[in-house]
Write a structure and sequence with these properties.
Elements (H helix, E strand, L loop, with lengths): L3 E4 L2 E4 L7 E2 L1 H9 L12 H5 L6 H10 L2 H6 L1 H14 L5 H21 L5 H8 L2 H20 L4 H15 L11 H6 L3 H9 L1 H19 L9 H7 L4 H30 L2 H9 L4 H6 L7 H13 L4 H4 L3 E2 L42 E2 L1 H12 L6 H19 L1 H7 L5 E2 L22 E2 H15 L7 H21 L7 H17 L1 H5 L4 H22 L3 H13 L1 H16 L5 H10 L1 H20 L7 H10 L20 H4 L1 H18 L8 H6 L5
Organism: Trogon melanurus
GO cellular component, one term: cytosol
Pfam families: ARMH3_C (PF08427)
């Protein structure tokens, strides 16, 4: 018997020379693509169509092959197909529902491809017709809502979410997608929450639900009242918020795991052996090869939750076992086909307090720790545009956290100590820190470590000024909380002071190059004011009196950098140029630092001369400092503990618009044919008579 092959909707016998036969569903599609009503000759046409297995490729290809005029000629049939799809969603027969959902996906994508340059209005007209749009879209959204909330098939729910993602991302700029007006009017917000609050649904569909919600929240968010923003901001159900946190934590944890695996694989290879022999000559080049696709979609979801919903802040600190230490079940878990990270959900939801009780021997973690580890990876390399966007969004999220009173309370809580293993960029002049030596500390220490790490590792020609400004602002906001609440944090403050002084040194060394692109005085002023904050209020929040002494020691020890900075800003503030005003602000801000240097340096020189010592030890300098505090005069500077609160609409709208566009394109691209595969669906419904 001759072998039968199938390709592009055609059936043919390989040994025969006869004209290939078309699948019945393809023949039926061909009837739709004529100007005649296909149900004229066959009254059961639509009923039969939804019993046929959908040929997505053929249907989309057929739509794309038509030009605008040809498409307009068959508009009535396209409208009819769209309406019958919506009717089929109400059928009891699951196969009809599945086929209707997949046909809708093909229709929406096919018509979009044809109408790329046109507005959402044209797509609505082509799909459903203006006159019936409101009723049809209402029926569609109600059917999808019912399917998502029903106890039925998980595969159907998955397809519903895929269809909604398809609908939302039909245009690159989602705010130009007029179809979404109907998704705003006929809200599916409660259905999304239901998925996130149920462990089973969350495990299967949590990722798609969270990404869908993040996109819907960004529809015309600055132009009109978006009901999804309003509703998300007032959610207070613990199970729902925790569910959302679990989905985000799992996706970020999966990224961290993939990066760690690649890093270990890289270090165990031949190149690692070579670098061990010849030193760390090529370590930077080697590290560049470690690359895992970033996940802006899930990061956007975390941002919207933190920014919009104050109740979500509690989820950040919700303890659960360290994900990397969890063992996977022996039995395989059915998953969707694998596509790059950042586009599909992780295979399982490992964190559920009911399923995974905390073990005293297992290191506990939480969403904030997972996020900090993720941030430490993506912020290493900001040369790549996606990583730059991810790094910026990580810092924006940390800015929101650093401004929140409750978040600060648990960040600084001495009873909530964690060992946070941040990723550190390989550098020639420092050894890799051993993970086991990490102490357990309040979470704010990990945030400060991350900021110090960024400051130290990004002093380069392509200077990421915007990220540095955000980084210094986060440190400032944390210090403001410590000063206000008199929190004495046991932290290695010297590392921060040293990083800040080296940053000033870098700005001065590269003055000409940097001034051509940036106003470096804004950043210099922020750094100087951090020192002013320590000088003026340090006695209220530094852990011990000796810590305050060490601050003075560092300023005196590195006085040459402050002297050079003063010379530079004085030179520019006395010249009539564009930098006159910003430079003069730095000049005034340096008054107390210069007072400290000018007060103590002569005392130290005098001490050395009297005691015939050529070079004083640290203890000897500290002794001079402690003995001469009472004769030091400092000026009180106003506003050091004040800051401008984060505002998305006024300052970040352009960034988020571009970010959401990028996510929309990525989501649409990865809703590939294989993710809509019918094989699993047909297996699930194979028992249906």
């Amino acid at each position: 018997m001759a072998q039968t092959e199938k390709k592009g909707g055609l059936l043919r016998k390989s040994s025969a020379s006869k004209k290939p036969l078309k699948e019945k569903v393809v023949l039926m599609y061909d009837e739709i693509f004529t100007t005649e009503d296909p149900s004229k000759c066959n009254p059961r046409f639509w009923e039969e169509l939804f019993l046929m297995k959908v040929n997505l490729e053929y249907l989309e290809g057929k739509l794309e092959a038509l030009d605008g005029e040809e498409l307009m000629k068959i508009k009535d049939n396209i409208n009819c197909l769209f309406q019958h799809c919506i009717q089929a969603l109400g059928e009891e027969h699951p196969i009809r529902v599945v086929n209707a959902l997949q046909t809708l996906c093909a229709l929406i994508r096919g018509v979009h491809q044809k109408n790329k340059s046109t507005s959402g209005f044209d797509i609505i007209n082509m799909l459903v017709g203006f006159d019936k749009a409101e009723l049809c879209m209402k029926n569609l959204m109600e059917s999808l809502d019912s399917l998502l909330c029903a106890e039925g098939s998980e595969s159907l729910k998955s397809l519903c979410l895929k269809l909604l993602l398809c609908l939302v991302t039909v245009t690159d700029n989602i705010s130009q997608n007029t179809i979404l007006e109907y998704v705003m009017i006929n809200s599916i917000f409660e259905a999304i929450l239901q998925i996130l609050s149920s462990p089973l649904s969350r495990r299967e569909h949590g990722y798609d639900a969270v990404v869908l919600l993040a996109l819907l929240v960004n529809y015309r968010k600055y132009e009109s009242v978006n009901p999804y923003i309003v509703k998300l901001s007032i959610v207070d159900d613990e199970a729902t918020l925790n569910g959302m946190g679990l989905v985000i934590a799992q996706a970020l944890s999966e990224y961290n795991r993939q990066y760690k695996d690649k890093e270990e694989e890289h270090q165990s290879g031949f190149f690692s052996a070579l670098t061990n022999m010849v030193g760390s000559m090529f370590i930077a080049d080697a590290d560049e090869k470690i690359s895992v696709q970033t996940n802006e979609a899930i990061l956007l979801a975390l941002y919207e939750a933190v920014h919009l919903n104050r109740n979500f802040i509690t989820v950040l600190a919700q303890s659960h076992p360290e994900m990397g230490l969890m063992t996977t079940p022996a039995s395989p878990i059915p998953t969707t086909p694998v596509t790059p990270l950042g586009t599909t959900p992780p295979s399982s939801d490992v964190i559920s307090s009911a399923e995974l009780p905390l073990d005293a021997d297992v290191q506990t973690s939480n969403l904030l720790i997972t996020f900090l580890k993720y941030s430490s990876i993506v912020m290493q390399d900001t040369k790549d545009e996606h990583r730059l966007h991810s790094g910026k969004l990580c810092l924006i999220i940390l800015t929101c956290i650093a401004e929140d009173q409750y978040a600060n309370a648990f960040l600084h809580d001495d009873n909530m100590n964690f060992r946070v293993n941040l990723h550190r960029m390989p550098m020639r002049h420092r050894k890799k820190a051993a993970d086991k030596n990490l102490p357990c500390r309040p979470l704010v220490c990990a945030v400060l470590d991350l900021m110090v790490e960024f400051i130290v590792t990004h002093m380069m020609k392509e200077f990421p000024m915007d990220l540095y400004v955000r980084c210094i602002q986060i440190v400032h906001k944390l210090l403001c909380y410590q000063k206000k609440c008199r929190v004495r944090l046991h932290y290695t403050w010297r590392e921060l002071w040293s990083a800040l002084i080296n940053l000033l040194k870098f700005l001065m060394s590269n003055e000409t190059v940097l001034l051509a692109k940036h106003n470096i005085f804004t950043l210099a002023l922020m750094v100087v004011n951090l020192f002013n904050m320590f000088i003026t209020y340090g006695d209220t929040f530094l852990p011990t009196p000796s810590s305050y002494d060490e601050l003075y020691y560092e300023i005196i020890r590195m006085h040459q950098n402050f002297d050079n900075l003063y010379s530079m800003v004085l030179r520019l503030s006395t010249n009539a140029g564009q930098w006159k005003e910003p430079a003069s602000k730095v000049t005034h801000a340096l008054v107390n630092i210069r007072a400290i240097i000018n007060h103590f340096n002569p005392k130290i020189e005098s001490y050395a001369a009297v005691n015939h010592i050529s070079q004083l030890s640290e203890d000897q300098v500290l002794e001079v400092v402690r003995s001469n505090y009472d004769t030091l005069t400092l000026k009180l500077q106003d506003g050091l503990d004040q800051y401008e609160r984060y505002s998305e609409q006024h300052k970040e709208a352009a960034f988020f618009k571009e970010l959401v566009r990028s996510i929309s394109i990525n989501v649409r691209k990865n809703l590939a044919f294989n993710t809509l595969s019918q094989e699993l669906l047909l297996k699930e419904f194979s028992t249906i008579s």
